[in-house]
Design a protein that fits this description.
- Helix content is 36%, strand content 25%.
- It is an alpha+beta fold and 314 residues long.
- The protein folds into two domains: 134 residues, Roll (Pnp Oxidase, Chain A); 139 residues, Arc Repressor Mutant, subunit A (Orthogonal Bundle).
- Helix 4 crosses helix 8.
- The longest helix has 22 residues.
- The protein is globular and about 65 Å long.
- This is p-hydroxyphenylacetate 3-hydroxylase, reductase component.
- GO terms for molecular function: flavin reductase (NADH) activity; FMN binding; riboflavin reductase (NADPH) activity.
- It is an enzyme of class 1 (oxidoreductase).
Length: 314
């Protein structure tokens, strides 16, 4: 099997390469919460959540043995799984940080199990602690679901070190028969539906071209944002690239090792080679844009861009 990162049996696995390979498995994003008997609350962002059993209703997730948050999870009789919605990137970033009052200025309720439940999630599960199992450098925590809340919101996804959202798979785009009305019914007059379908169709061919550049999604986003100078400091990157701090740190470390950026302390700056790499990515994007919009006049393109900017609020 061909692979850029492979190892022989008995050889020690490169932890960073292993983690990057695991990043190819798209997951949802959760915040695990608990409260012990004296009222200490804890919350951690995690994508290790998974179902285990339907009868009894069991789920599991894992936490680093070095995490200071583990103590409260261990002391608590119950915990909650908050499955984040696509609009909760900032909440995910907040609970991925260390050393601060994560619950400050965050709206939440206490569930029947006395566990913090966040508003506007996709779903939430209140769990009785069922077992804690040792798993290498992590603790695997199993929970028995005693109550759940299904809000049905579109979930926040995590893939290749960057946040993503659910879009229909291209193979589900059934072509109409010859002579059939391409836009039947009221659905095709719904702007939200048309916009999401347009994004899906546009990304279908664009993403493979970007990945062929050799940059992962997280690295490409950083290069493009830093070249555009829309993020003037590190804090701005959270808003612009839609990535958690951990992945920004990992991606910037990789780009720095490649000689594409430097850390100035409060911000990152692209090197000459970094600007060249960003230009290559822009060329890929512009080539695809030209291919898609070649049948429209310059006036139509400018009007379309103006409408998009108006929707964004620029």
């Amino acid at each position: 099997m061909n692979s850029l990162n492979k190892f022989e049996f008995g050889e020690k696995i490169d932890a960073k390469a292993f983690r990057r390979a695991l990043g190819n498995f798209a997951t949802g994003v959760t915040i695990m919460t608990a409260q012990n008997a004296v009222g200490e609350k804890v919350g951690v962002t995690a994508n290790s959540f998974n179902s285990v059993s339907l009868d009894p209703a069991l789920i599991l997730w894992s936490i680093d043995k070095n995490s200071s948050s583990f103590r409260i999870f261990e002391e608590s009789t119950h915990f909650a799984v908050n499955i984040l919605s696509a609009a909760q990137i900032e909440l995910s970033n907040k609970f991925a940080k260390r050393g601060e009052d994560k619950f400050a200025n965050v709206e939440f309720d206490l569930g029947d199990t006395n566990t913090p439940l966040f508003k506007n999630c996709s779903a939430a599960f209140e769990c009785e602690k069922y077992n804690i199992i040792e798993g290498g450098d992590h603790w695997i925590i199993l929970g028995k679901v005693v109550k759940f809340h299904d809000h049905g919101r579109s979930p926040l996804l995590y893939h290749q070190g960057a946040y993503s959202a659910v879009l229909p798979h291209p193979s589900l785009n059934i072509k109409p028969e010859k002579g059939e009305d391409i836009f039947p019914g009221k659905l095709y007059h719904n702007m939200y539906y048309l916009l999401t379908q347009a994004v899906r169709a546009y990304q279908n061919d664009y993403h493979p071209k970007q990945l062929a550049s050799g940059f992962r999604t997280s690295e490409a986003r950083l290069l493009l944002v830093l070249e555009s100078k829309t993020a003037t400091c590190k804090d701005d990157l959270l808003r612009e690239v839609a990535m958690p701090i951990r992945e920004i740190d990992q991606a910037t470390e990789i780009l720095a090792q490649k000689g594409l950026l430097i850390d100035t302390g409060n911000a990152y700056e692209l090197t000459e080679n970094g600007n060249k790499a960003a230009l290559m990515l822009y060329n890929i994007a512009e080539s695809h844009q030209e291919e898609i919009f070649s049948k429209y006049s310059s006036q139509e393109r400018e009007l379309f861009k103006k409408m998009l900017k108006d929707l964004i609020g620029i």
